[in-house]
Write the structure tokens for this entry.
Amino acid sequence: MNSKTVYIVFGVSGSGKTTVGKALAKTLDIPFYDADDFHTEANVKKMSDGIPLNDNDRGPWLNILATHIRDWHQAEGAVLACSALKQKYRNVLQSIDDHYVKWIFLETTYEVILDRIEARQGHFFKKELLASQFETIEKPKRGISIDASYSIKNIMAQIKLKLNIQKSQFGLIGLGVMGKNLAKNILSKKISLSVYNRQIEGKEVDVAKHFVNEQSSNVNVLGFDDLSSFVSSIAQPRTIMIMVNSGKPIDMVIEALLPLLSKEDCLIDGGNSYYKKTSEREKKLLKHGIYFLGTGISGGEEGALKGPSIMPGGGKKAYDRAGKFLEAIAAKDKKNNPCCAYIGPEGSGHYVKMVHNGIEYGEMQLLAETYHLLRFYCNKTPEQISEIFESWRSNDKDGFLLEITADILRKKEGEQFLIDIILDKAGQKGTGGWSTADALELGASVSTISEAVMTRNLSGMKSQRVIASDAYQLVQTRITENEVDFIISLEKAFYAASIINHTIGFDLLTQASQEYDWNLQMSEIARVWTNGCIIRSDLMERISSLLVNANTTSLLLFPEIITIMKANIVALKNITSTAITNGYSLPVISAALNYFLTYTSAQCSANMIQAQRDYFGAHTYQRVDKTLTEYFHTNWKN
């Protein structure tokens, strides 16, 4: 800024001209002047008596100010707080070249100013004059307008932004629960931030403004409900994270942003988007010279606030641009490295998040089945089950999901455990189903993940389940002896099933990496999942270490895992058998066992499947006594 510039802060009385003017003068290290100090005694007396000034009164006063403005310009510049309500008054004050006068209009409402004036004491301006000021004020055609209803810190941030004294380092669109907490996280890392949220009457009104006001102690945040102003507020090349619902909403935001962006700006989709759509969006944006990262974020509300696990995928140049921000807000692993890493090209970041959620589905159902057995087969109270789970946590089986399940089981509503009054009907957002669908496309087996998805679907048939239960009246028996041994076996079965579920997830990632040529680094993915995300656990720490020098090896083939599985597989078999015999369904636990038994069988039942396929469809088959390049067909009726 030119050191001889005169900044005129204007608006109605009570809009904050003096406060803002002094703050601006301090920022720019130039003198501050209040136009009220230059009024004649006659003018001050009239206003004190509640009599509005007329143009004859203002003429000499404006001429005096114009003279001083010329003098301040010749010296070191200045900041002047002045009402300057009409354009003709501002024309008088514009006594030097337009380039050297910067007009700053503090715009607000009658109601806001009335509240402020009623709270002021000892000022000669009376509230009765306020109406005349609002009748007189003419909005300026030049200069900048600032929303004066914000805090002084935010007003100053707006001024710095619009005068190009300061721009934000990062932008965030969408202030839902996750977006708001991520914004707070970003600000806690001393990153200056612009936030935008749409305006919908009666539903989403002044969301960005309210968020900024909540951060009144933070000068690094600007709030917008105008997309163009939001984009202009961010330093180029811009980095903008979009936190809106996946699907059409993300496409609508991108379409609205495109005309406002510049080449080499970078967009980040932080929602749960389908990876194929992410790849399409990246290709489209690259045609416009815009970088794009499809970024999986896990950790829920708390993770977003304190540090989530972050999985960015897309062009390496995009990550080079935005990675520093993502790494800054991510959780930290045991070595204090960010739980964020460049995953790979195209939609790989969202794919990895999709598989994370698939593993999560399996783990949640595994814990639900384990709880159900303890609750109804072993007749344990929720509090007792919580204590059992807490004991497992200290046996190298700790994890976020086990921890929160133990917490859930202690929660009461009055004298009743809350878990006992929650309807047994589970919802889902689709990512588990996407994992299942993509596995089918790749020809991969995801038994535990797909069974967890199907079990949620089956839980949704609540009314039919009630009817069927009444119709069949099947008996679920309870344990009668060896309860301690059963619980010990259940812990082993739980651990074995969890290992199998994780194996299935990582095997799917390996297969996708090969199919799509992504070169995913499994150890890094596991490391990113050691903190911040929903499936963080002791087991994930172990998996990260195992995969360091064996990127494509299945977890079930590591000697360490083989030893663990051998020590626990009998328990998994016994628990599955006992539960089903006594009338308790174990969809994921039994799926894990069936997967393992098939995986470890040199001879399985698939030869019969091939014979059947060849019988009715002439699909051919291979033979164990011939080379694998030969295929055969048989006329099975002759």
Q: What stands out?
A: DSSP finds 26 helices and 14 strands in the chain. The first strand starts at residue 6 and ends at 10. The chain has a mean pLDDT of 92.
